[in-house]
Amino acid sequence: MTGPLHSSAAPALPLVVLIGPTASGKSSLAVWLAARLGGEVVACDSTQLYRGFDIGTAKPSAAERRAVPHHLLDILDPREAATAGDYRQRAIAVLEDLRLRGRLPIFTVGTGLYLRALLEGLADAPPRSEELRERLRETAQAHPPGYLHRILARLDPQAAALIAFQDEQKVIRAVEVCLLAKRPLSAVYREGRSPLPGWRPVKIGLAPEREALYGRIHARLAAMIEDGWIEEVRQLLGSGLPGDAKPFDFIGYRELRAHLEGKMTLQAAKEAIALATRRYAKRQITWFRKEAGVLWISGFGDDCAVQEEALRHLEASGIPHQR
Question: What is the DSSP letter of 52?
């Protein structure tokens, strides 16, 4: 993989994209493919950017990171805000480094918006209005949970279907854009994009059977608890982080925080986490099913048959196997 990134004469370089719902095995498949194709893994997940929030965000294991280089993990302080625009800039820098070193990028995508920002570019959305955002926060506090999300559903049903009502930060931004742009957020995002130059995405989607996926979700939750997730949350709460730090709103972290603060039993927290994770998986499936040009493979990323089918597809797409 050599040649100038923006040269019109140079052919576009392959960029592997692995999509699928949480717990479908994207990380396992990425590491397996990277070892055979001379690749490195690039995380495309808004939760895995944050340092310290490790177990509940299902970051790749230490063994996986030792086996293959990983990028865009643990790069933000929990006090910082993560945006699709910042992610795109960081990912483009990683891509240039991989291009110069002749390595194949393999993206593991949990956050569909970040992938869209990278591949298609960002829309010309209005800048943040702190005054409006504060009014929206006050409105949310003055009404029952989900009130702002219902407003968003009236302003932009498509955006509301993709944003969880508990994710207040995203809901506020979506309503803010709708009000300032005077048109739906989904319409804004469709306009004024600049596609990523110099790269040719090859997309593979993991599509495990729904009940099997839910079984994996529940088993992973039990393993996370066993691996010390509650202690991780306890340490984060005692580290001096502000209570409104964004990662405390991630699935599992908010429920375990409520448990540690005496507001929820551990069993109730586990049940709430499992339910929220299943709902999140459904939203991911809805989003990813709209992605164009995807080879969908039934099963999980750690299944041998799935791995071999993915490898055959990539080789047929012009990505050579490292002999």
Answer: T
Same domain as 90, residue 21 = yes
Other CB atoms within 10 Å distance of the CB of residue 121? 16
How far apart (Å, rounded) are the C-alpha atoms in residues 215 and 227? 18
User: What tens digit of pLDDT does each residue of 57-116 get?
Assistant: 999 999 999 999 999 999 999 999 888 889 999 999 999 999 999 999 999 999 999 999
321: which 2 tokens? 């196997």
The pairing of beta strand 70-71 with beta strand 104-109? unpaired
Answer yes or no: is 2 within a domain: no
Distance CA 254, CA 141 (A): 17
Distance CA 95, CA 84 (A): 16
Left (φ > 0), alpha (ψ -120 to 50) or beta: where does 58 sit? Answer: left
* Token pair of 287 as six digits: 């989003």
Range of the domain at 177: 130-189
Cβ neighbors of 304 (< 8 A, separation 6 or more) are none
Tokens of 281: 């998986």
Q: Are residues 18 and 41 in the same domain?
A: yes
One domain for residues 109 and 251:
yes
- The pLDDT tens digits of the residues spanning 178-235 come to 999 898 988 887 776 688 999 999 999 999 999 999 999 999 999 999 999 999 999 9
Same domain, 207 and 312: yes
95 and 146 in a single domain? The answer is no
Number of domains in the chain: 2
Task: Tell me what the mean pLDDT of segment 253-276 comes to.
Answer: 97
Q: Which of 139, 171, 189 is the last residue of a domain?
A: 189
Q: Which residue has the tokens 């944003």?
A: 163
